[in-house]
Amino acid sequence: MSFRKVVRQSKFRHVFGQPVKTEQCYDDIRVSRVTWDSTFCAVNPSFVAIIVEASGGGAFLVLPLHKTGRIDKSYPTVCGHTGPVLDIDWCPHNDHVIASGSEDCTVMVWQIPENGLSQPLTEPVVVLEGHSKRVGIVTWHPTARNVLLSAGCDNVVLIWNVGTAEELYRLEGLHPDLIYSVSWSRDGSRFCTACKDKSVRVIDPRRGTVVAEKERAHEGARPMRAIFLADGKIFTTGFSRMSERQLALWDTENLEEPMGLQELDSSNGALLPFYDPDTNVVYVCGKGDSSIRYFEITEEPPYIHFLNTFTSKEPQRGMGWMPKRGLDVSKCEIARFYKLHERKCEPIIM
User: Fold this and answer.
1) Residues in domain DUF1899 (predicted)?
2) Structural domain contains residue 53
């Protein structure tokens, strides 16, 4: 019997994570303790942004990537929100623009100076007011400039024109409960959401309608996430009825049964998926775990192939993910994570 039939051939079999040296970490950062399942960290080729503890309002740090080592207590923050910041997202078309959603019910868009902050930034470029409860999700449109989506605890999804600060689309009544996650499709024509009512929905924002819906995508009551893959399939993470953590792959044309479903373990942290469309690898980081598992998504069954696990000693409070154009390809990097500990941020190179 030939060896080939036993082991599936994969060019990613030898991808492994490598934490950087201590002096290349960002140290002495008071990472936010707010109980919200966002990543708490956003990265682009110029800056790393981290939501931090702040007295009297909400703030986040924006550090130039090269500013490693110990971060001074008096280092300036972006601190215009009057309530804790829950989510941040860098604009994909401009590395100096970042959006933040907060418990103060507003979304703010900030312009970061060329070399980072020299004094606290309190004045946003634009304030987007339209939610009646806290805003837990902000995500930029992948292809259109100045288009930002926000989702709040009022179960409303708003799509903004940031240039004019007006609502382009207001999607009410589509979600009966809290929205856990939102992900744009690759061309930005649709987005998918995971909701507390255990449904995954595919929504066409222009028509304001649900194009496809899968009820009880994961049976468990804990938070789930859904992300669009490049070919239009949807990858979800959630919990089974027995509180086992699960991963699933769905075909949006037929949501009756998942194409693939895997159970991982019975930990209780929400699983945050990160997807690389170039390699078709999904990285799954559990909040409070100390590992990053990664899987290759392929066209042939069982569709989700486990590749490897990066393990470390410290649990992660959040995770940032560098876009492909910020990687050092001369060192064969295919992904870079920014792992948040209680007091520091540690880059991990794949």
Assistant:
1) 5-69
2) yes
Number of domains in the chain: 1
Domain containing 142 equals 30-172
Of the candidates 141, 177, 135, 176, the one whose C-alpha atom is nearest the C-alpha of residue 38 is: 135
Q: What average pLDDT does range 100-116 have in this prediction? A: 97
Specify the pTM.
0.95
For 325, phi and psi rounded to 5 degrees? -75, -5
**65 within some domain:** yes
Residue 57: its pLDDT value, please?
87
Q: Cβ neighbours of residue 237 under 8 Å, at least 6 residues apart?
A: 218, 224, 225, 245, 246, 247, 248, 270, 271, 272, 273, 284
- Output the CA–CA distances (angstroms, integers) from residue 132 to 112, 118, 128, 151, 304, in the order listed: 28, 33, 12, 11, 39
Average pLDDT over residues 321-339: 96
Specify the CATH number for the domain of residue 163: 2.130.10.10
List the 58-64 sheet strands across, edge first. Answer: 41-43, 47-52, 58-64, 78-81
Q: What pLDDT, in 10s, does the model give residues 132-173?
A: 999 999 999 999 999 999 999 999 999 999 999 999 999 999
Q: Look at residue 116 and tell me if it is in a domain.
A: yes
Where residue 124 falls (left for φ over 0; alpha for ψ -120 to 50; beta otherwise) is beta
Whole-Å CA distances, 188 to 173, 191, 216, 316: 22, 7, 25, 30
Query: Has residue 28 got a pLDDT over 70?
Result: yes
Checking if the pLDDT of 125 tops 80, the result is: yes
